[in-house]
Design a protein that fits this description.
It contains twelve helices and twelve strands. The protein is α/β, with parallel strands linked by helices. Helix 1 packs across helix 8 (about 240-250), helix 3 packs parallel to helix 4 (about 90-95) and helix 10 crosses helix 12. It is globular and about 65 Å long. The relative contact order is 0.17. The structure holds pyridoxal-5'-phosphate.
Amino acid sequence: MSGVPFVDLKAQYARLKPQIAEAIQDVLDDGRYILGPAVTRLESELAEYCGVRHAISCSSGTDAIFMPLLAYGVAPGDAVFVPSFTFTATAEAILLAGASPVFVDVEADSFNIDLADLERKISETRAGGKLKPKAILAVDLFGLPADWDELNKLAERDGLHLISDAAQSFGGVYHGKRVGTLAPVSGTSFFPAKPLGCYGDGGAILTDDDDLAEILKSIRVHGAGSHRYEVIRIGINGRLDSIQAAILSVKLSVFDSELDDRERVSRIYDEALKDVVTVPKRIDGVRSAWAQYTIRTDKRAALQEKLTEADIPTMIYYPTPMHFQAPYAPHGGGEGSLPVSETICDEVMSLPMHPYLSDDDAKRIAATVRGALA
Ligand SMILES: Cc1ncc(COP(=O)(O)O)c(C=O)c1O
């Protein structure tokens, strides 16, 4: 089965080619290449799509979580609680803000932050007296929303800011509410391979908080005040290009049908694989955006080798927990401190997942997995 891509951006482009060409041409004709009208339009479309008051587009998913940390004044001496099983950008944003990550374990089935361990880490940090608990930065890993009702309760009870790293979950739904509305502020990524991706780097911050939105818009343009050359705080160059915004508007018009197709592929995999590997958790009332379809098996190395031989691409997201990575290790508790994160890094493997994967290809991939494990 040669030629099945892990993510098929070319098939999506073929579907949308004339609309994308027209959208890019409109920006070229208009000439406002940064934060132009295409960006304003996209921001209202994103806000409407999520059901949120403000969508502030920005330069990447990394900046979409870094800017809220700056806006909340997260600084040296502050502790930010973060899962260890995530992409580096989640933890990186905390260190870039000058604060200290406190790594929390995840649940083996949902891959999302473990609330019991989170409560433990908050109490320990408070008791330790060295760092001030300031914020929780939780992740919707692989597209599945975390337990936001409980996270909101916990953050409110403990007086902590709550930020959602929704880089992988834009389009996901949690008990009737869309990702972007689940935490006081959420940051998402439009990296090309994400469920909603542009043709370069991009991201967005989603919030109902009017004051926070104003601060974020200032941070996005170097901390500008009432005019461009008045500086009222330290910010970054965090803007989205108009061409990327125009491309995203076109892609948003077919996004719901793409989410349905991701769901279709996930169901085929589930059905064919549930008795041979651990398939991703499903939660009643919660819908994943299926950024990844990630299985767990203790025979990963052999399975991956056989799939590679069969020309089926796979990825290991993620091979190493963050508390083992060199820049973060001094903030972590070392080997054995977060047993679930450490174990699943040896077991997880992601299969090809995109809306343009046919039923036949998904079934054949699943059959190859079954055959390899037989
Ligand atoms: C969980 C998570 N957070 C943050 C990011 C950062 O997004 P970007 O690559 O757009 O900066 C990513 C991207 O891979 C991610 O997967």
